[in-house]
Structures are given as structure tokens and as C-alpha cells.
Amino acid sequence: MIHLQATIPDGVNFEDLRLSRDVRDGAVIFDPQPIEAICMASGFDIDELVQGPDPIVCALITAWYQEHLKRGGAPDPVQEDLMEETRLEQERGGGFSYAPGHA
Hints:
Blueprint: E1 20-21, E2 28-29, H1 32-42, H2 46-50, H3 56-70, H4 77-92
Antiparallel strand pairs: 1-2
């Protein structure tokens, strides 16, 4: 298990990601600028964060979202769907996902 401690720069908010899903294939789309700012502030290599079959950036976004909610931030419907898909995949042994917007 990888443990990272990230620094979220002042003025960078979870909503800045503008999470959405590609309607054709359900791929997650987000604005990379907030992630780039976090990488710069935290000393992370963005290429290492986003490459690979299971990018670490997903874990960073999830952890950031959880902290966002703890601090009173508004729920994000796309992230909520992603978390539900992950829960169902873990519960049922993987390979399970709803079509975008149907979790």
C-alpha cells in the first residue's frame, strides 16, 4: 500500500477538478491544473501519479474528496458515483461498473 501526504495549495479547491465522465466510455475527465498544483506543492512527479493501469491520481483524488467532505465541502456526484463503483467492485470481486450516471 502506498501512503502519500499531499499539500493542497491555498486557492486550490476540489471543485476546480471539474470532474465529469465521457458519455461514450465512462472514462473520468478532470482539469489537470489542480493536480499539477498539488504535485508542485508536494514534490510529486505528475507523470508517476497519472501513468499505469491503476493510476495513483485516483487515490489522490479520493483522499482529497474525503478531506473536502470533512471540511464541509459539497458532495460531488461524479466522485460519489466513482466511490460507489469501487465499493461494488470490491464487494463483488472486481470488474463491476455502472454506465455513467447510473450508480
